[in-house]
Amino acid sequence: TQLLEQSPQFLSIQEGENLTVYCNSSSVFSSLQWYRQEPGEGPVLLVTVVTGGEVKKLKRLTFQFGDARKDSSLHITAAQPGDTGLYLCAGVGNAGNMLTFGGGTRLMVKP
Amino acid sequence: DAGVIQSPRHEVTEMGQEVTLRCKPISGHDYLFWYRQTMMRGLELLIYFNNNVPIDDSGMPEDRFSAKMPNASFSTLKIQPSEPRDSAVYFCASSRTGLGSSYNSPLHFGNGTRLTVT
Asked: Is B115 in contact with B89 (CB distance < 8 Å)?
């Protein structure tokens, strides 16, 4: 079983602050996805990273895939209350169609 | 696009009762996944189907759980008999292509069924 560990589990910050969420594994993934989940809803895909070292930007969100494709990070610049939610990383294993989710980082941005 | 539709949104039942959760995937999506989410264990894959055929059910906790996909537009997850430890949010998700394909098709999740077994 390929495991993904996310840190921190909980994060409470003030509006305008920057933050980084980490997603780590001892396994190699063919690709990695980041999802955001709001209360009462299912996760929604933010981005997919495929190539080792790849960096993708989505407005104030920057996603990076580690060179060895074992880890990833999500950096949010100038966080806003609308960024509040549960952030989940999920790895696609080399074996096929299994998507393994990390435990998630629950982010709260206070105005 | 109506998205993935799950019903019911909430289900409260007594221990020992049968529970049936329903899912309508997005039209044209060949893959359907059932996940369970709890605070302790996060999102766990229970089973997934490709073209209505169960491919991997290794995540199904035990024989009390069963899933079917009689056609491309409908799937059920049944728990019989239900137990308090089955309380969780159950998500159905669909994708157009497989995750292992060169084109990474995202999972589209429904809004889940919150199951409470007393």
From this structure: yes
Q: Is B85 in a helix, a strand, or coil?
A: helix
Find out whether B37 and B55 touch, Cβ atoms under 8 Å.
no
Residues B101-111: b if buried by 16+ CB within 10 A, e if exposed: eeebbbbbbbb
Reduced to 3 states (helix: H, G, I; strand: E, B; else coil), residue B28 is: coil
- Per-window interface: B 68-97 vs A, CB < 8 A: 91, 93
B7 vs B91: CA distance, rounded Å = 10
In angstroms, the CA B77 to CA B86 distance is: 12
H or E stretch covering B98: none
Query: Taking 80 as the threshold, does the pLDDT of residue B11 lie above it?
Result: yes
Contacts of residue A59, Cβ cutoff 8 Å, sequence gap at least 6: none
Distant-in-sequence, close-in-space partners of B102: CB < 8 Å, separation ≥ 6 = none
Name which of B31, B106, B111 is nearest A97 (Cβ-Cβ): B31
A-interface mutation test, from B31, B99, B111, B114, most A Cβ less than 10 A away:
B99
Radius of gyration of chain B (CA): 14
Residue A82: strand, helix, or coil: helix
Interior angle at CA B107, CA A44 and CA A84, nearest 5: 15
Question: Tell me: the pLDDT tens digits for A45-101?
Answer: 999 998 899 999 999 999 999 999 999 999 999 999 999 999 999 998 766 667 889
